[in-house]
Amino acid sequence: MPKVTTSLKKRAFSGNLREEIDAWSRWRTLESSTAFSEKSLAETLDGGQAFRWKPIDKGVWEGIWNRSVVRVQLGKSGDLQWRCPVALEKGASVEIRNYFGTGQGYEAIIDHLPWQSDAIIRSAIKEWRGLRILRQPLGEALFCFLCSSNKQIVQIKQICENAAQRFGEKIIGQYHSLPDWKTLQEIPEKELRLCKAGYRARYIKQTAEILANEPDFLDDLDALPYPEASEKLRRLPGVGEKIADCVLLFGAGRMEAFPVDVWIQKSMKRQYGLTDWNREQIAQFGRIHFGSFAGLAQQFLFAGERRKK
DNA sequence: ATCCAGGTATGCA
DNA sequence: TGCATACCTGGA
């Protein structure tokens, strides 16, 4: 008798669990003029612009932003297919289109880069065709890149995951959103450190306090020209030149931002001969040379340098 | 065991 | 202005 009860309970429990997280919608195609390759898809999702994507199966990626949980894979003709938990289907299509930024034609955007006069960027575009800049939520981009200083990508992902599990809201099953800034403001620095954020926990805490006092801080960035938006972001502790550029590029769609990290420094030295140029000089060169889509150029060069044999 | 990793803030010439 | 140095943490 007790045996039966136990077994029934177990089945009921595992049944619920399965229902909650294993019921996925059918695969749908994302309408888009872009053809990813396996390579450019992987680089887009897991190349260091976003930190909440992971490969879960052969060719299948799983990602989380806001309250969206999505799986994507490449279709036979290079189209991007997606699905999400059935319980989250409402509005998902719009979310995904927005996140992957399929508004403008890919070719038209690429055409803004100086591929005709610059053989280096031409070659990088050829190798990484399909690579794009994702449209991440601004607040999430700020959080992730505040965690990024002096860390490797795997560790940044780990900190984000820890923060989501500890302080984020449960979306469904084991999936949690990143904590929003209002929530972060209420968490003591000591607890933030439990996410393995290290000294960045202080930056997060102080930034959260500023954002709490100025609720429109992030929203106001949109109206500012690039130099002023960058300047404003750099008022936040832990946000310097590079992180400001990442937040503007990946979280605010500011394609003219040109983040200069160690990889871009290497690339510009090796391929463009900018020996002895400092970061600020390289950033300025990038913005001028690559123009209004400098950020996309940066992503191509970054991919090439980081995956260099 | 040391060193260093998608940087930033701070302290001195 | 311009350049070293410390800073959490963990993987190589």
Number of strand elements: 7
The major sheet is characterized as: 5 strands, antiparallel
Which CATH-level-2 architecture of the largest domain?
A: Orthogonal Bundle
> What's the N-to-C terminus distance?
64 Å
Helix content: 40-55%
Strand content: 5-15%
Shape: globular
Structure, explained:
Helix content is 51%, strand content 10%. It is α+β, with helices and mostly antiparallel strands and 309 residues long. It has two domains: 23-103, TATA-Binding Protein; 138-306, Hypothetical protein, domain 2 (Endonuclease III, domain 1), CATH 1.10.340. The strands form two sheets. The chain has a five-stranded antiparallel sheet with strand order 1-5-4-3-2. The longest helix has 21 residues, at 2-22. The chain is globular, with a radius of gyration of 21 Å.
Question: How would you summarize this macromolecular structure in one to three sentences?
Answer:
By secondary structure, the chain is α+β, with helices and mostly antiparallel strands.
